[in-house]
Amino acid sequence: MAEAFPTLFSPVTLGRVTLRNRIAMAPLTRQMAEADGTPTDEMVAYYARRARGGLGLIVTEGTYEQDAFQSRAYLSQPGIANAAHVAGWKKVCDAVHEHGAKIVIQLMHGGRVCDPRTLGNEPPVSASATQSGGWTLYTDNDYEKTIRNIDGDWPKVTFGKARELSVAELHAVADGFAAGAKRAVEAGADGVEVHGANGYLLWQFITPKTNLRTDEFGGSPENNVRFAKLVGEKIRAAIGPDKLLILRLSQDGVDDFTGAWPGGTAYAEAIGAALKDSAYDALHWASFNYLDNRFPADPTPLPTVLKRASGKPMITNGGIAEGQQAEAALTSGAADMVALGRPLFAHPDWPYIVRSGAEYPWLPFDRKYVIQPPLDFGHAYPMGLVDPKWPQP
After folding, report:
1. Which H or E run contains 13?
2. Which listed residue (47, 200, 280, 290) is catalytic?
3. How far is Cα 156 from Cα 143, in angstroms, rounded to an integer?
4. pLDDT: is 330 or 378 the higher one?
5. How far is 40 from 361, CA to CA, in rounded Å?
6. Residues 98, 52: Cα–Cα separation, whole Å
7. Which one of 121, 201, 287, 350 is CB 3.0 to 4.6 Å from 109, fit for a cystine?
8. For 192-210, what is the mean pLDDT?
């Protein structure tokens, strides 16, 4: 009997790291760390359980890499900024490796969409002096309250106006990414992913409407992606050639869910071409549906465009929940690996279930099981949570 989805379950090599199959766990914001950013035993169990489900690669939730330059985005966000963080992540990495999967820690700087309660009364920083019109993830709006079954008051926290980073500061921020990457490797990670997607700092450089600079870090696709390349170069110098280095990209952000690059495929081609000589081993496309590129003039999926233009292997995320969809992304040229978020959150054994080829009654993902601060002890893993008594805005 032929194996179900042979491409999906074949090995793949990214950089110098070989993975047992082409299934990655996409980063999922959990806010399960201690108040000081130290990973918890609950995080160890969470990641280990999904590694045990048969994944090839785990990309962790966004992790702040340094305390300087207001990099921390969320309350209860994990960090990789000090020795205590390293020790916490070592438990996670060791547990994942025990089950045969590889793990990369996603390094993230929130930029202009950092929760103001994490900033110590300092303004957020960004590519340019802009202000997000959104509000902090998981704060008060009717839709979020409805889907989480929450009653009563729930604070709405908006973002302050960002301060533009100087060129000298950009190099210092990039050095912070490199130092965080070195600590991630010390913790046992197989590499790192740089978060250049979903509205955070590097996205704010890559996206023209948030990058108003007129120096070498703005004004064209090649200049807009220059900071991401600088971060990659400094990380590669810090961690050496053998560890995996990935860059995550997207059109939309946490405060811009319908965002699109100007010119669609042409902009993606320019970004991909600029990344061709970068230090990254692979790119990771993040979207709600990778087949929808939001550019009617040319429907080519943007991960396909980026893969062709850059020559880099592509991890593709968005709109993939079934084995058939994953296999199609791989065989169509849109992906070398697929990344799943919500399906793996709801079904840690997704790889084994899909490999069996059997029909399966998938549970729908329910947002109420995603933790939000102030912590809701009625959902998720209440025995593993410690209320950090975050100040109200």
Report:
1. strand 12-14
2. 200
3. 13
4. 330
5. 32
6. 9
7. 201
8. 98
367 within a domain of the structure (yes/no): yes
Nearest to 227 by CA among 205, 257, 194, 246: 205
3-state DSSP call for residue 323?
helix
CA 361, 362, 364, 366 torsion-angle sign: positive
Residue 1 belongs to some domain of the structure: no
Closest to 234 in 3D by CA, of 194, 203, 190: 194
Residues 6+ apart with CB under 8 A from 116: 124, 136, 157, 158, 159, 160, 393
> In 263-341, which ranges are continuous DSSP H helix?
265-275, 302-310, 323-331
Look up the domain containing 163 and give its range.
12-380
CB 261 within 8 A of CB 207: yes
200 catalytic? Reply is yes
Cut 0.70: pTM above it = yes
Q: Report if residue 387 sits inside a domain.
A: no
Inside any domain, residue 61:
yes
CATH number (domain holding residue 86): 3.20.20.70
Distance CA 209, CA 38 (A): 35
Distance CA 220, CA 356 (A): 48
Per-residue tokens: 114:
């950092």
Helices (H), 99-151: 142-147
Q: Which tokens sit at 269? A: 């081609």
Q: How many domains does the structure of the chain reveal?
A: 1
What type of residue is 149?
Answer: N
For the cut 60, the answer to whether the pLDDT of residue 372 exceeds it is no
Strands 17-19 and 12-14: antiparallel
